[in-house]
Amino acid sequence: MNPQDKDIVIILQCAIVKERCGGYFCEAALEKREGAFTPYPADKHLRHINLTCGGCCGRASLRKISNYLHQLKKREDISRDKVVVHLSTCMTKPSYHGPKCPHLDYIKELLSRLEMDIVEDTKIGNKAQKKRDEGIYK
Ligand code: SF4
Ligand code: SF4
Question: How far is the CA of 76 from the centre of ligand 2 (A)?
Fold first, then answer.
């Protein structure tokens, strides 16, 4: 994937975590080009949307993103190669909210059908990473 080519970022978030989390740290990381968003050009405006996986087992991810891509193409003639999906860190790694998503591999397999760029992680917080390194977050 070439980050320079992307115009739109979809942040896919855990539906359970989103019952509590407003998504601030994901959005701020994108805005500041931190964590997994570091490779995107700082001087380029990136359009973005947040979606949840829809709840366990995450199967709604495919139809939600598929619908978004369909509308984007139909109404604005923007193709999926301009779009990247980021799986939020609370899905991909153990964190304050709990262990990583037990359906992560299934969600990745689902999204592979979209034949588009999928990136793991969003915000990488220093405190959480320290606890992962120390084995506190397993
Ligand atoms: S990574 Fe953090 S900010 Fe983003 S959805 Fe998960 S808990 Fe919320
Ligand atoms: S499938 Fe994973 S990411 Fe989605 S709600 Fe369940 S635990 Fe969260």
Answer: 31
Residue 18 Cα: closest atom of ligand 1? 5
Nearest protein Cα to ligand 1, atom 5 = 23
Q: Is the CB of 21 under 6 A from ligand 1?
A: yes
Dig out the tokens for 13 from the structure: 């978030």
Which among 95, 63, 111 is positioned nearest to 103, based on CA atoms?
A: 111
Domains of the chain: 3-133 (3.40.220)
Q: Which residues pair with 117 in a beta bridge?
A: 84
pLDDT single digits (tens) 28-61: 999 999 999 999 999 999 999 999 999 999 999 9
Query: Could you report the per-residue pLDDT of 49-97, keeping only the tens digit for each?
Result: 999 999 999 999 999 999 999 999 999 999 999 999 999 999 999 988 8
